[in-house]
## 1
Amino acid sequence: MPKTEMGRFNVSPDEDSTSNSSNSNDDFNYPEYPAKKLSINCHYDMDPENQNFLEPTLAKKKSETEYVSGTTSFGMSVFNLSNAIVGSGILGLSYAMANTGIALFMILLVFVAIFSLYSIHLLLKTANEGGSLHYEQLGFKAFGLFGKFAASGSVTLQNIGAMSSYIYIVKYELPLVIKELMGLEKFSGEWYLNGDYLILLVSFFLILPLSLLRNLGYLGYTSGFSLLCMVFFLIVVIYKKFQIVCPDWGCHDAVNMTLNSTLSSLVNHTAASVENHNSTEEICTPKYFVFNSQTVYAVPILTFSFVCHPAVLPIYQELEGRSRRKMMNVSNVSFFAMFVMYLLAALFGYLTFYDKVESELLHTYSKVVGAGVIFIVVRLAVLMAVTLTVPIVIFPIRSSINQLLCARSDFSMWRHCLITVLILAFANMLVIFVPTIRDIFGFIGASAAAMLIFILPSAFYIKLVKKESKTSVQKIGAVLFLISGIIVMIGSMTLIIMDWIHNASSNGSD
C-alpha cells in the first residue's frame, strides 16, 4: 500500500478531547514511495506533549506538513481490513480445533478476537496522541531507536511469516494440482512434482519480477480476489462435509490393521468387527476439550490469523470522515465477519476429518479418494491468490528495511533489487527447511503476532498517552494487557521450543 505523508488528523469532537492536540508529522519520510504534493500548507506550534519526543531546539519550530484527506468509504475500509485479517492462517484453524476441542477452541477464538480489537483501540488512541500513523514512528517517539527497531522487526517478522506460509502452500499444493491435471496415479520422482523445485521456479519467474516493481498499486486488486478465493474455499469445505463420510477415510487405516491381525479365525474376525465399529465411533465423534502436545500451537495459530495491525493505521489514514470511533466501527464489522468465517472453516474442516486433520487443511483433502474436480479449482484459485499476494507482502518488508538502514538515502535500484532478492531467498530457504506450516504459524504467532497484538500497542499507549494518569482505569488495563501479552509470548515460545526438542529427540532415538 503506497505511503503518503500526513498532516494533522481530522478528529471528531466526540473523541476524548483529542481534537485539542496538534501534531507534526514531517518526520515521516518514505523515500521509496513519494507522497502527493498538495497546495495546503499548515503552520502551527508544536504542542507541549510532543516536546517530549523532539529535541528542545526543535520543539517550538514551525513545521510545514501536507494534509491528505481520506477518501475511502466505510464499506471499502471494511473490505480492506477484512483482506488484511484473512490469510493463510485460515488453513490451520481446523488443526487448532482438533487439538483443543470445539468448546475450548471457541473460547480461545473469542478471547483472541476481543484482545485484537482492544489492541486496535489502544493503537488508534496512541496514534492520535502520538501524532503518527506509522508503526515505526510511534515506536521511535515512545522508546527511541529501540522502539523503532522493535516495531519494524515485528512487522518484518510477521510479514516474512505470512509470505513463507503463502510459499509453503505453493510447495505442497502445486505438485498435487500438476499430478491431478496430468492424470498421474502416484509420485515417481519427477522433478516437476518436487515442491522445492517448484517454489524456486515460481519465485524466480513470477514473484521476483512483480516484486521488483517500484509501484505495486495495481496488485491491490488481487486482495479482493484473494478474499473471494477464501470465501469459495469456505463454501467448498462446508459442502464437502456432507459428502465425505469419516469412516471411509479417517478410520480406513485402523480397519485394515485390525482385519490383517484377525484373519486367522472367524470368531476373532467377528470380535474385531465389533472393535472396529467402536473404534470408528470413537475417532469420528467430535471432542469438546482436548489437551495434548499439539495444543500449545492453538493460541499462536489464532493470533497469527488475527494479525492485521500494520494495516490498521494506513486504512485509518485513508478513511473518509476520519475519526477513531468510525475506525473502531470498521474494525468491529471486519472482525465479526472474519470471526464467523474462521469459526465455520475450522468447525466444518474438523467435523470432516476430526483428529486426522493436518496442519494445512487444504492438503488434507488430497488424501480423500475422489475428492472431485472442485478441489482442483479450489487449489488453483488459492495458488493464484497466494502467489500474487507475495509481492504485496514484500512491499512493507522492503520499506521497513529501508527505513531502518537508509531512511535518508535516495532511491537506489541496486539496493531495491538486492533487498528484494534477499527477502525472497530467505523465505524460500525457510519453506524448504521448515518441516510443516504448523511450525511457521506457531513460531510467528508466538513471537511477532504477540508483539503486534499485545505488547507494542499497550506499551506505546502507556508511554505516549499523557492525558490519562498512571492510576486511571485505561492505563491499568493497558498495563495488564501488556503483562498478559508477555506471558502469552514467553509461555507459547517455551512450550513450542520444548515440543521441537522432544520431537527432535524422538526422531533421533528412532
## 2
Amino acid sequence: MRLLPPIFTAQSAVSTFSTDTNIQSKQKLYLTLTGAQLPKDQSDALADELNTLYQSVMDSLGSDDARYIQRVHATVVYSEIISRGLLAAAGRMPSKRSLVATWLLGTSLLSFSKILNNMELGHNVMHGQYDWMQHPYLNSQKFDWDIVCPAPLWQHSHNYLHHTFTNIVGRDHDVGYHLIRVTDEQPWAPSDRYNLFSTMVLALGFEWAVAFHDIQISADEYADSPQLTEIMRPKSRGLFAKIARQVGKDHIAFPTIAGLALGRRSTMTTLSGNITANMARNLWTWAVIFCGHFTDQAHIYTELDTNESKGDWYIRQILGSSNIQGSKLFHILTGNLSHQIEHHIFPDMPANHYVRISPKVQAICRKYNLPYNTGRFGRQLRQVIGRIRHFSKPSAEEWQAYLQSQASESTHAAKEEQDDAPVIRGLGKHLPPVMRQALFYL
C-alpha cells in the first residue's frame, strides 16, 4: 500500500512567475511578495476546484473518522498512564542498568504521549476538525491540551491571526515569533546576531513561547485601547492558572506521589522523566512548525491585499507553506502538519485526510503552475537553519541604515520603554518584557 503521494519536487518561484507581474522579489532565495499571483479568472477557477475537493471530503465524514480520533485520544491516555508508572517504578529497580532502561522506556513513552496529545489530538481538535461529532470534550470549545498555553489564547493567535494573515509581516505574528528574524522585511538589529542561539532557546521552551505569544500580540494590538486592562487581565489570569496546573502536575504532584509511594529515588526518576519528555515534545513541535513555514521557498508577504479573493487566499496559503515527506507514523506524530499546505488551505478538515488529498492538491498546483514545496525532514530542517543563519547577518545596506539611525532611535526607544513599560519590582524586573506585562496585568 502506498503511504505517501508521488513526490512532487519543490520548485523555485523565481522561474515560476514571470518578471512582468506585480510581484516584487527582494531576494533570489528568500522571496518576498506583494499583490496577486494569478489573474482573477485563474484564481477563481483554482478556488472552485479546491472548494469542490474540500466539500467532497467533508461530506464523506462519518463513523470511521470518529473512531479514529477516539482511538488517538485513548492512545494518549493509556500511554501516559503506563509511562508514568514506569518512571515511578524506575526508582525501585535493583540495579543501575535496569533503572536506566526503565527510565528511558518510561520517558520515551511519555514523550510519545505528549507529542501525540499536542499534535494529532490537541492541535486538530482545537481547530474544530471534529466539532461535527458533537462529542462532549473532543471539540474546539471544551478540549485543552497538555502544555502551559491555555486553549483560548492559542486559538486567537493561531486559528485566527496566523491562519487568516498567513506570512504577512506585521499581521502574522508567527513570522519569527517576535524572537527570530526570518525575512528582510524585519529590520535587522544587533540581537539578530544571536539568531541561532535564540532559536535553540525557543525550541527547548517552545510551549512557553506559545503560551506568552498571545500576551505579546494582544498588548501590541490593543495598546491604544482604553479597554487594554480589561482585555489583558483575563488573558493573564488564564495563562498563569494554566501554568500553575501544568507545573503543579508534572513537577510537583506526580513526583510527590511517586516519592510517597515508592521512595525518594522514584521522585527523582519521575521528575527528570517529566522534564525530559516536555523538552522532547517542545523540540519536536518546534521542528515541525518551522519546517512547515520557513524553508527556502516559503514565501513572505509585505501586506494584505484589500481585494484578496478566496482564490488569492488559497494561493497565499500554498506559497507560504512547506510539506515534509515521511512514513505513516511520522505523519501522525506531526499531527499531519507534515502536510502543512493541505492544512493551511483546509484548517478545519480532519487532518487524517490530508495524505489522501495531497496528490489532488499537487495536481491542482501543477495545473496552475504553482510551486508545491515538499521534501524530506532533514532537507527541510537544514533549509530552516540556513534561513535563520542567513538573516542573522545584515546586508551592507541594512548595516549602514542601522548605523545611521542607531543614536536617535535608541534614545527614543529607551525613553518610550521607560514611560510605557509596566512597573514590576523585585525578581520580576529581570524577566523578559512579555512576562513582565503578563505579571502586571495579572
## 3
Amino acid sequence: MAWSFSTKQFPGAPFSDGSSRLGSFQPPSKLYSSSLQLPSRQSQSKRLEIQASGSTFGTYFRVTTFGESHGGGVGCVIDGCPPRLPLSEADMQVDLDRRRPGQSRITSPRKETDTCKIASGIADGQTTGSPIKVEVPNTGQRGDDYSEMSLAYRPSHADATYDFKYGVRSVQGGGRSSARETIGRVAAGAVAKKILKQYSGTEIIAYVSQAHKVVLPEDLVDHETVTLDQIESNIVRCPNPEYAEKMIAAIDAVRVRGDSVGGVVTCIVRNVPRGLGSPVFDKLEAELAKAIMSIPASNGFEVGSGFAGTFMTGSEHNDEFYMDEHGKIRTKTNRSGGIQGGISNGEIIKMRIAFKPTPTISRKQNTVTRDKHETELIVRGRHDPCVAPRAVPVVETMVALVLVDQLMAQYAQCMLFPINPALQEPLQLSEAEPVQVRL
C-alpha cells in the first residue's frame, strides 16, 4: 500500500511525444493538485514511496539501529565500512560491557549480558566491504513493570510525544525511546574507533566531570595524558579518585530516595587529522552537536570554552598561532576546542555534554492519562539514578561515528590528487608512527 499524490508535470518534463515543456513555466500553485488519495492503486509512476526516517546516521559510514527495549533484541547495520579491517565480536564487546546495565549500584539494575553477534559482513576475520549486521538479544524483559504506563504518561519522558506524533507507541520500556537503543550505536562505534585508531592514531576518551552539584575542576585532568584505565577505575567513570567518591555519594543520596540527578560528560579527541568538517552546513561542530544531541537524556552541548567564552573578550579568547619545534603550525591556547572555522585544526578536540536527570523516578508524580484525565503515577521499572556514567561510552561512540564519516569525506574530496605539502598534512600516520590497535 502506498501514498499517492495526484500531480501535474514539472516544467521541463517531457510530453508523451518526447518534446519538452521548457519555456512554458506555470506558477507553483498550478504545478500540483491538492488531492491526497489514501490508499491508491494507481500506476507505479504516480506512487510516492515514503521511507522510514530517523534511524540511520552518517553519509559514507552509515549506521542504522533497530530494535526496542522489550522486543526480541536490538542491534545495527553498518554500511560503508572499508574492507580488510580485522574485526570480531570481541572488538565490540568491550564497549558494550561498559554501556550495559547492572554494572553497579548507581546504574540500572536490569540484568543483561548484552552479548553481540556479527551476522554478516565478515569473512576470515576481516570486513568484506558489505553491510555488517550486529545483533544483541534482550533477555531481561519485565513488561509487567509498564502496565500503568499503558494508561498514563511518564512526566518528561517520550510517552506523550510519541502518541502525539504517531498515534501509537510501544509501552514496554518506552520502545525506541529507551536508552537500550544505543546498543546498536555502541557496536558500530567500536568499528569506527578501530578505523580511526588504525588509520590516523585518533583516540576518543570521555569521562564524567560532574554529577549533580559535584563539579570536577578542569585543571585536575591532563587531557594530553589521561587514560581509559584511569577513567574505568571507579563506577562513576571520573578519572580523579577524590571527586569520584564525592560524585558516587551524591548519586547514592538521591538513589535511596527513588530520585535521580543529572551530570556532565567531557569528551576529548587526540590525534585528530586536520581538515575534517565541511563548510558551511556540515561544519564539524555542527555534525558533532547533532550526533551528541541524539543521545537519550542529553540536553546541552558545547565545544572548547563553550558558554564560558561569553564572559571573555575577543582578544582574551583568540587562540594565537605559533611554530612548534617540529615546524608545525599550532595554537598557544585551545579555547576553540580544536575546531576553527568549523574544521579540525590538529589540536585536541574538547566537548562537554549535559545529561538531565532520568525522567523515570520511583516517586508519585502528577500526570495525565491517555484518555485525558488527570491522575497520579508512581513509575515502576529499573532505571539509572544518574545516566552520565553509562553515557560515557555512548558519547565516545557518537563522536567516533562523526569523525570516521568526516574522515572518509575528507579522503574522497581532498586526497584524490597529491596534497599541497606546504599547507596540508597527510591524513594517515606515517610509517615512522606505528599504532597498536587496542580497544
